[in-house]
Design a protein that fits this description.
420 residues, FAD/NAD(P)-binding domain, 7-stranded mixed β-sheet, 7 helices, 19% helix, disordered N terminus, disordered C terminus, monooxygenase activity, FAD/NAD-bd_sf, Putative flavoprotein involved in K+ transport
């Protein structure tokens, strides 16, 4: 276990130098150090865009804090997404607070540029990050959060620390949503989630069905259609949204109209669609890829469509979205029976502040506050709100839950958007 320290800098140094990608933490923390009986005032779980935004907000408060992430590098899941992925929002609308995205503000940055930007962000602000460390379990021990940690690998060293508050910033894309498809056990072809897809090369000449109607489904199906015979299958029709209405990127309009700031909560997921500059709709109209209503079942050799026609298929790609991976909070139950997660393992919160467990917050959940909550530009405002509430609780030394009002419930139903 990390020993309690007398200065916040010592906490930062001890944590930041143990990961696979050390980040200098000097100057990040208050010289007052952590509260008595804890190793750190605030533990941030996750060092992707949500965790980094939380770190930026925390470094301006004077409390001690550190970030931990299971990955070997800062930046969350970005480096692992498919090769052609670009942001839907232009660079000028895609930055975390305090550091503009470099280059032409009107361009749409590539996946690798985003990953590099996030690494640079952590270094620029000297955020204390401990990578290669998975949070296994968070519990309440009566006075603080007790957090069990494990280093990467099956034989990774185990440790623990005590924190006054916890921010779950592992985001809304931690786990792929894998629907229970009829006939899946009998299907003899390849089935993979879009999170494991990289490029069309390996599918040349194949017969492929892409399941989904969101951005990733349409993008992947369209690029696969250049080398394979592809059908896009979904229960709902594709809902198109113009990328540049009146010649200006749609994200400009959502911000300056005030729509982006509306506290839509989980209803934000219902107003998104596939952003298109015209090329994807044209591709579907030309039959590359083809488009059909969802198949009724998988067969040993392919799929059976609603009209009874069976078709041989080599590969099924599930572009069915992601959901939060908050398994480390399952055992977070207070003595009075209140728990962090509900029976469906969904976090119970109001705009990112737990309504059941004082001192617990979230950043990066889809629909946490509004349309942009799970995006680069939305992480900063959400983090600022959550950090303000949690640090207020810490300073009072008697945390209180969120104020009365209808609680948000971030469901684990798939988010149809691409992981932006």
């Amino acid at each position: 276990m990390l020993q309690p320290t007398t200065t916040g800098q010592a906490v930062g140094r001890a944590v930041a130098t143990t990961g696979a990608e050390p980040v200098d933490a000097l100057g990040c923390c208050s010289p007052q150090g952590a509260r008595p009986g804890t190793d750190v005032d605030v533990l941030v779980i996750g060092a992707g865009q949500a965790g980094l935004a939380a770190g930026y907000a925390l470094r301006r408060t004077g409390v001690s804090f550190t970030l931990v992430d299971a990955a070997a590098h800062v930046g969350g899941s970005w480096a692992g997404y498919y090769d052609s992925l670009t942001l839907f929002s232009p660079a000028g609308r895609s930055a975390l607070p305090g550091l503009p995205f470099p280059g032409d503000p009107g361009r749409y940055p590539h996946r690798d540029e985003v990953a590099a930007y996030l690494r640079r962000y952590a270094e620029h602000f000297a955020l204390p990050v401990r990578t290669g460390t998975r949070v296994q379990r968070v519990r309440w021990d009566g006075a603080a959060f007790s957090v069990s940690l494990a280093a990467r690998g099956e034989d990774g060293a185990r440790s623990s620390l005590r924190a006054g508050a916890v921010i779950a910033a592992s985001g809304g894309f931690g786990a792929p949503h894998l629907p229970d498809l009829p006939g899946a056990r009998e299907f003899g072809g390849q089935m993979l989630h879009v999170g494991r897809y990289r490029s069309p090369t390996a599918f040349a000449g194949q017969r492929v069905v892409v399941v989904g109607a969101g951005n990733s489904a349409v993008q992947v199906a369209t690029e696969l259609a250049e080398v394979a015979t592809v059908t896009l299958a979904s229960r709902a029709p594709v809902r198109w949204r113009s990328q540049r209405p009146l010649g200006v990127d749609v994200h400009h309009w959502t911000r300056f109209s005030g729509v982006e700031a509306l506290p839509l909560g989980r209803h934000a997921q219902q107003v998104v669609g596939v952003l298109d500059d015209g090329r994807y709709r044209a591709a579907l109209a030309a039959g590359r890829p083809g488009r059909r209503p969802m198949f009724t079942t998988l067969t040993p050799t392919g799929v059976r469509w609603a009209d009874g026609v069976e078709e041989d298929v080599d590969t099924v790609v599930l572009a069915t979205g992601y959901r939060p991976d908050l398994g480390y909070l399952r055992d977070l139950v207070l003595p009075d029976g209140r728990s962090a997660l509900d029976a469906r393992q969904d976090p119970m919160h109001r705009r990112g502040v737990s309504t059941t467990v004082p001192g617990l917050g979230y950043v990066g959940l889809p629909g946490q506050h509004g349309l942009a909550s799970a995006t680069l530009r939305g992480a900063g405002p959400d983090a600022r709100r959550v950090v303000r509430r949690l640090t207020d609780q810490l300073r009072r030394r008697a945390p209180t839950p969120a104020p009365p009002g209808p609680a948000s419930r971030t469901t684990t139903r798939p988010d149809p958007r691409s992981p932006r």
